[in-house]
């Protein structure tokens, strides 16, 4: 079963590599949205430091929405999803593999990019480190929760808009604790509490959402 | 295409002589239309069932139901005296649907290797190359599938037939878009599968000529 998990990840990474443009769109969207704020707000260092965590996190949420719809759509259209449902393995394992691959191409690059973008907001080096850790813990949550929404809206007309309405409210806890960690550090408080809660959220969604997603996919395929 | 050449490719079959597919009083509703009601049949090893009927008569719905992809309105489907669902049933099943689960971005070789992973009978690269060669894709194993013709894409999906050891095959229009040679190859493979005590349920609008077999037919109206 572990082998299958690895093979699913490798397959999705290979597909993402063959469709590089899609991956780059998400990353560029994130970079551009974050970079627009310092230009729009002006060179007011204090204000920029204050809004930085929130801006980076909201941009990450929106960027993740861009790529979510593609998580199952292609497999749904060409019949691969049927084969996954009929595989003699727990569907949750295949789904988790797809989510992990999705995070590696759409979440991880955002986390890696964030410290660089944070420089535009005059964040101190330690705050940049915490921003990176918070995103490293938080972006997988976005992929995990988003997968449920992507499965529920599979094959629906106007699914994209519905997906945003469904998933964005569920992102709120990750947003609060993720942005809160950096804000706490800037305010001189330890960010540990925020990061622990973020990690707890990650574990919980990692355990629950693959199975919920699998169930939603079965319903979508009926 | 020689029969022995085909045989050498198939993996050790997992057939049981007492395997049986039973369909009991099955009914199907699509939207507000009842497609069929009270459909019953059994399928034993070595038998081929051809589902006939006009477009929209519910052939694909029936096949998807047999696979367990959708739930019947009433009735039940049993495989070896248990409900035809779950991992054990899936291990015994090969389903090739209307969409052949072929990724345009991947090469035929990658497609076949990945399909075999999902079917939990992973192939080695040389086995996969051999199968592609036999189905007439020799020399195109490493081209992106989107560069192939419609019929060749179908062949990529159907290559799974050459390497499957599942006893129950459910095939939705397997002969569409294939040329005469490929149709002959597929029919020879079907005959071989039946000779090995496999079972096949399929739909086709083409005349089916499986050597040595008179297909049973059910008609949906």
The CA-CA distance between the termini of chain B, in Å, is 37 Å
Structural class of chain A: mainly alpha
The helix count of chain A comes to: 11
Distance between the termini of chain A: 26 Å
Order of helices and strands of chain B: HEEEHEEHEHHHEHEE
Main beta-sheet annotation of chain B: 5 strands, parallel
CATH architectural group of chain B:
3-Layer(aba) Sandwich
| Rg calculated over all Cα atoms of chain A | 18 Å
Please state the overall shape of chain A, judged from the principal axes of the Cα atoms. Answer: elongated
The number of helical runs of chain B is: 7
Output the strand order for the largest sheet of chain B.
6-7-8-3-9
Order of helices and strands of chain A: HHHHHHHHHHH
User: What is the count of distinct domains of chain B?
Assistant: 1
Share in helix of chain A: over 70%
Q: Please report which band the strand proportion of chain B falls in: under 5%, 5-15%, 15-25%, 25-35%, 35-45% or over 45%.
A: 15-25%
Please compute the radius of gyration of chain B using only Cα atoms: 17 Å
The overall pLDDT of chain A, averaged over residues, is 94
Structure description:
The complex is a heterodimer of chains A (222) and B (221). By secondary structure, chain A is mostly helical. Chain A has one domain (2-221). Chain A contains eleven helices and no strands. Chain A is elongated, with a radius of gyration of 18 Å. The mean pLDDT of chain A is 94. By secondary structure, chain B is an alpha/beta fold. Chain B has one domain: P-loop containing nucleotide triphosphate hydrolases (Rossmann fold), CATH 3.40.50.300. In chain B, α4 (108-118) packs across α5 (125-137). Chain B is globular and about 50 Å long. The model of chain B is unreliable at 1-8 (pLDDT under 50). Chains A and B meet through α1 and α5 of A and α3 and α4 of B.
């Amino acid at each position: 079963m572990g082998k299958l998990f690895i093979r699913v990840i490798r397959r999705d990474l290979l597909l993402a590599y063959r469709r590089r443009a899609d991956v780059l769109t998400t990353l560029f969207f994130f970079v551009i949205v974050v970079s627009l704020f310092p230009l729009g707000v002006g060179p007011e260092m204090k204000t920029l430091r204050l809004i930085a965590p929130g801006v980076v996190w909201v941009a990450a949420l929106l960027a993740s929405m861009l790529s979510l719809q593609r998580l199952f759509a292609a497999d749904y259209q060409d019949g691969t999803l049927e084969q996954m449902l009929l595989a003699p393995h727990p569907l949750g394992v295949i789904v988790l593999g797809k989510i992990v691959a999705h995070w590696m191409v759409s979440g991880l690059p955002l986390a890696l990019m964030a410290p660089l973008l944070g420089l535009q907001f005059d964040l101190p080096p330690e705050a940049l480190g915490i921003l990176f850790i918070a995103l490293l813990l938080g972006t997988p949550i976005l992929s995990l929760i988003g997968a449920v929404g992507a499965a529920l809206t599979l094959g629906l007309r106007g699914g994209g808009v519905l997906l945003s309405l469904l998933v964005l409210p569920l992102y709120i806890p990750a947003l609060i604790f993720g942005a809160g960690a950096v804000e706490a550090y800037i305010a001189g408080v330890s960010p540990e509490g925020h990061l622990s809660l973020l990690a707890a959220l990650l574990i919980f969604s990692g355990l629950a959402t693959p199975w919920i997603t699998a169930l939603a996919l079965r319903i979508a395929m009926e | 295409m020689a029969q022995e050449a085909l045989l050498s490719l198939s993996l050790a079959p997992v057939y049981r002589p007492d395997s049986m597919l039973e369909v009991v009083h099955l009914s199907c509703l699509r939207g507000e239309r009842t497609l069929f009601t009270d459909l019953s049949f059994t399928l034993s090893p070595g038998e081929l069932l051809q589902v006939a009927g006009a477009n929209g008569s519910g052939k694909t719905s029936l096949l998807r139901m047999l696979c367990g992809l959708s739930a019947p309105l009433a009735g039940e489907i049993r495989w070896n005296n248990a409900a035809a669902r779950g991992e054990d049933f899936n291990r015994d099943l090969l389903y090739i649907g209307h969409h052949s689960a072929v990724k345009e971005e991947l090469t035929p070789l990658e497609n076949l290797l990945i399909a075999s992973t999902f079917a939990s009978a992973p192939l080695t690269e040389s086995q996969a190359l051999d199968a592609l060669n036999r189905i007439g894709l020799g020399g195109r194993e490493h081209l992106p599938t989107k560069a192939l013709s419609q019929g060749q894409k179908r062949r990529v999906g159907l290559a799974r037939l050459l390497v499957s050891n599942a006893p129950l095959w459910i095939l939705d229009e397997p002969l569409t878009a294939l040329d005469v040679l490929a149709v002959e190859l597929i029919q020879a493979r079907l005959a071989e599968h039946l000779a090995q005590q496999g079972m096949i349920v399929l739909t086709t609008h083409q005349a089916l000529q499986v050597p040595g077999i008179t297909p049973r037919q059910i008609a949906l109206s």
